[in-house]
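Subgroup meeting minutes
Present: P.N., E.W., G.H.
Scribe: E.W.

1. P.N. recapped why we're keeping a running log of single-chain structure predictions: easier to compare across weeks, and new members can see raw inputs and outputs side by side.
2. G.H. added today's entry (103 aa).
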Amino acid sequence: MRPKGLIGNPDFLFPDLRIALFVDGCFWHGCERCGHIPRANQSFWKAKIKRNIERDVETTKRLEQHGYRVIRLWEHELRDNIHACIARVAAAIGAENVSGRMS
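Output recorded in log:
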């Protein structure tokens, strides 16, 4: 479920557990591992990505102040190790057994 009107517009929300899950794109959210600044119009992109990072920090802080647990996954984490991401979310929601294969 992608809720509307909640601070930061999380990608997924577990309302009963008060968990907000964001999947941050490496480029747009300034991933230190694989994000980059385009060569064209560097000052614009540096400022844009910096604002995105600052907004992410503020969004996390505000959601936590409202009693939410915030989970942020990087785009590359989903690509590189989906099972670790699933395990992380399962642990957060208290799932004892998460089984199955992703194809």
